Amino acid sequence: MYPYVGKYIANLTLAQLKTLDCGSLRLDGFPLQEVYPGTRLSTLPELFDFVSCATDEPVLFNIESKVDGDFRNLTRGPEDFVKAMAGEFFSRGADFVDRVTHQSFDWRALILSKRDYPSLRTSALCDDTTLYKPLASGINGNLTTHGTGPSNWLAGIDIDSFPGSSVGERVARAAHSIGADFLSPVATSYASTGGAADPAEKGWIAFTNKTMVDTAHSLGLQVKPWTPNRKSLLEYLLNIGIDGVITDYPHEFRRSLERKNYPLAPPGDAKRVLKCLEKHNQYTADKLDGKGY
Q1: How many domains, the chain?
Q2: Can you tell me which residues the record assigns to a coiled coil (predicted)?
């Protein structure tokens, strides 16, 4: 219905983005997703204001700058992201900055963060597709089939220039070389066959492995993989010593961690959260029926 649907976010105004409904449809890959029909996109300041309303706890924030490393005209550049994000973080005081981590697949942004804002923590995201130069066919490949040479995503770093008998070791050393505080790798390699997404499935291949974790720890980096949504995968990651996880189902993982007696943040006040959601959430003029499909 709108002439700008399908265009890149970098080329749209906030007013245009605010007309979009991002709460009515349930994504097929997330069957447990709640829907809030008509929900508009929130800006970063609006998100922070909502969290301040919802809890008095010192919440930690892991904020990602979305920059395309290979096709750089599709997104705003890392300079724009770092300047805008840091401006918002530091306007809220040093205590707030101390609770924020800036993560990105585009390591240029992380290098800029460390250069211009040394006190801001950074997390180096990576997976099979970002470690290497794309194949001649234009495909990024995976752990077993990939190009060689400097990666556009890793600020021109050639992963094979670092010492180590495994990819995991070299990834950890590369992240350390840019001053990252955290390494945030994909949990499952795209080289896994037959769609295997679980350590219990035939053809599953780990991207995050013990060698990677041990090397990162020896260099002072914590490791927080993404996006394990299966409990068997969580068990595997805990067994190799990871420091945290990025998951779409934190409530489910919390139950597993409680049973293992991990120290956890106090549970939130559900009534307060929903009350603040009602206060802060913005809605489009039109909503779908709320079925989610």
Answers
A1: 1
A2: none
**Are 190 and 142 within 8 A, CB to CB?**
yes
- DSSP letter at 43 equals P
pTM: 0.95
Quickly list H helices, 42-166. Answer: 44-54, 78-91, 94-97, 107-116, 128-131
Nearest CA to 243 among 164, 197, 186, 183?
Answer: 183
| DSSP at 178 | T
Examine residue 272 and state whether it is found in any structural domain, yes or no: no
The pLDDT tens digits for 54-65 are 999 999 999 999
**Cβ contact 102:81 at 8 Å:** no
> Three-state DSSP class for 72?
coil
Which CATH number belongs to the domain containing residue 165 in this structure?
Answer: 3.20.20.190
What is the domain range of residue 96?
A: 61-132+148-265
Q: Per the domain annotation, does 137 fall within a domain? A: no
Pairing verdict, β 121-126 and 182-185: parallel
Q: Tell me the torsion sign for CA atoms 138, 177, 209, 68.
A: negative
pLDDT 10s digits, 83-108:
999 999 999 999 999 999 999 999 99
Determine phi and psi for 185, rounding to 5 degrees.
-90, 160
For 251, residues 6+ apart whose C-beta sits below 8 A from its C-beta are none
